[in-house]
Design goal:
Keywords: DNA-binding, Pyridoxal phosphate, Transcription, Transcription regulation. This is GntR family transcriptional regulator. InterPro entries: Aminotransferase_I/II_large, HTH_trans_reg/aminotransferase, PyrdxlP-dep_Trfase, PyrdxlP-dep_Trfase_major, PyrdxlP-dep_Trfase_small, Tscrpt_reg_HTH_GntR, WH-like_DNA-bd_sf, WH_DNA-bd_sf. Residues 11-79 form the HTH gntR-type domain. In the C-terminal section; belongs to the class-I pyridoxal-phosphate-dependent aminotransferase family. This protein has 464 residues and is an alpha/beta fold. The protein has three domains: 13-91, Arc Repressor Mutant, subunit A (Orthogonal Bundle), CATH 1.10.10.10; 113-350, Aspartate Aminotransferase, domain 2; 352-453, Alpha-Beta Complex (Aspartate Aminotransferase, domain 1), CATH 3.90.1150. It is built from 15 helices and 15 strands. The protein has helices at 13-26, 39-46, 50-62, 113-126, 142-156, 171-182, 197-206, 222-232, 253-265, 286-289, 322-332, 338-349, 351-374, 395-408, 438-453; strands at residues 66-69, 73-76, 100-101, 165-168, 188-192, 209-213, 215-216, 219-220, 236-239, 269-273, 294-299, 311-314, 388-392, 410-411, 427-431. A seven-stranded mixed sheet has the order 4-12-11-10-9-5-6, sandwiched between helices. Helix 9 links the parallel strand 9 and strand 10 (269-273). Helix 2 (39-46) crosses helix 3, helix 4 (113-126) crosses helix 12 (338-349) and helix 6 crosses helix 11 (322-332). It is globular and about 65 Å long.
């Protein structure tokens, strides 16, 4: 009974399992021709998801360590096929040669270097770059927050006061900051039954429990939210009401009003993550229906430029700020200034609108390509287009398709990454902005279409 020794470290589990397979092949613990345990059996013994083991087996096969036989399983390659070197675990989880990576949900690439050069030139001429060399105390630079208030009003249609804005080091920092400031270890945070993986990571790191709330085609159901709040005693709801990640659902105005009503009745604080609002038909925010209890989070990461690591958390006027300010100091001492100053210059020049328009144009083109290639496999999003696509399918099928795609040269988000409850929607998320060109995306979509079209019944790949 083979039992791999998995090294500790920051690399993803599947990478460490591949490393263990390679090490055991080299030292003879796995002989040529040896049959590896079925994925589900090994996952149970290791205490991990079967998707992680499936992904590791597929990657090990791609690297030449294993060979899979239809209906029989995965076997160590014969002695005539030398075992290739496996990169060290420290290399990280970035993209690999020959693999089209659809895991990272970023805006589609458009030329921004000229905009960056222009902003830096203008800041230099104005003598406005000095704050980038110093610690920025408290909630961020006042001129930057005033620019953010203007941008949110113009682009999001929501009026917020600059003094009620907190500058964050990206949306992920904003989520962790809100969770840590208003929840304690062991507390329960309500969220969609399928939610943003970053929120899961933050909750797990902070010792919080996420409780998934049942969804329908518009997102969280108000009756299910009311019941979950009563049963758990939770005092916080985290939600992505617009182009929900990963399912692309968008709440109607009525649904948002209903969610606000339940939150008010159950005394819930709402963290509204509006990362994808720029791609939508601009429905009214939940914050507009429950301004006294909604922390509204907007970020540049999904609609402008992820590398700036900049987001803003709009707070209800009466909400205490002391814990948030302490959280800023605890997580990073102060918000970084350089990216914020560049953003401020783009807002003042009006350039940010042109940049957003170019990104939306490219996103629309990529969505049309996806819909044309994959057709009914893709859920129609709650907007004209979306930076990510969702392909619903049963969990076990999603695991199998993920493994087949990796062998074919396309890597997608692991299907188990977003589920929070048994009612979670299962399927594959495709990040359409991740490929560097439309040609690369087209190649990935063709592979996906072919793999799903050729995917048959149980055990076809020997993947169980």
């Amino acid at each position: 009974m083979w039992h791999p020794e998995i090294e500790a470290g920051p690399a993803p589990f599947y990478e460490r399992l591949v490393h263990a397979i390679a090490a055991d092949v080299r030292r003879g613990a796995l002989a040529a021709g040896a049959r590896l345990p079925p994925q589900r059996d090994l996952a149970f013994r290791l205490g991990v998801s079967s998707g992680s083991v499936t992904r590791a087996y597929a990657e090990a096969e791609r690297r030449g360590l294993l060979v899979a036989h239809v209906g029989r399983g995965s076997f160590v390659r014969g002695a005539s096929s030398p075992v290739p070197d496996v990169p060290a675990l420290e290399r990280g989880a970035g993209g690999r040669a020959g693999i089209i990576d659809l895991r990272c949900n970023t805006p589609p690439p458009v030329p921004l270097m000229h905009e960056l050069d222009l902003a830096l030139s203008q800041l230099t001429k104005r003598g406005a770059l000095d704050p980038a060399l110093h610690y920025i105390q408290g909630p961020g630079l006042a001129p930057v927050r005033h620019a953010a208030a203007r941008w949110i009003a113009d682009s999001y249609g929501l009026d917020v006061a600059a003094e009620n804005l907190i500058q964050c080091n990206g949306g992920q920092h904003g989520i962790a900051l809100a969770f840590s400031s208003f929840c304690g270890p062991g507390d329960t945070v309500l969220c969609e039954s399928t939610t943003f993986y970053g929120a899961r990571m933050a909750a797990e790191h902070l010792g919080l429990r996420l409780h998934g709330v049942a969804m329908d085609e518009e997102g969280i159901r108000p009756d299910a939210l009311d019941r979950a709040a009563a049963e758990t005693g939770s005092r916080m709801l985290f939600t992505l009401p617009t182009l929900h990640n990963p399912t692309t659902r968008t709440m109607s105005a009525q649904r948002r009003q209903d969610i606000a009503r339940v939150a008010r009745a159950r005394d819930l604080l709402i963290l509204e993550d509006d990362a994808y609002y720029a791609y939508s038909l601009r429905p009214p925010q939940i914050a507009s229906f429950a301004p006294e209890r909604t922390l509204y989070l907007v970020s540049l990461s999904k609609g402008i430029c992820p590398g700036l690591r900049l987001a803003f958390l709009a707070l209800p006027p009466e909400l205490p700020r002391e814990r948030l300010i302490r959280g800023i100091r605890a997580f990073g001492y102060c918000p970084p200034a350089l990216g914020a100053l560049i953003f401020m210059q783009w807002v003042e020049d009006g350039r940010i609108e042109a940049m957003a328009s170019a990104i939306q144009h490219e996103a629309s083109a990529r969505w049309i390509m996806t819909q044309t290639e994959l057709g009914a496999l893709v859920v129609r999003p709650g907007a004209a287009h979306s930076p990510h696509a969702f392909l619903p399918m049963p969990a076990i099928e999603a695991e199998r398709v993920t493994a087949r795609l990796l062998r074919a040269g396309v890597e997608v988000t692991p299907p188990e990454a977003s589920g929070v409850s048994r009612e979670a929607d299962t399927g594959l998320r495709l990040c359409l902005g991740a490929p560097g060109s439309r040609a690369e995306l087209a190649a990935a979509l063709q592979i996906i279409s072919g793999v799903i079209a050729g995917h048959g019944g149980a055990d076809r790949d020997g993947i169980i």
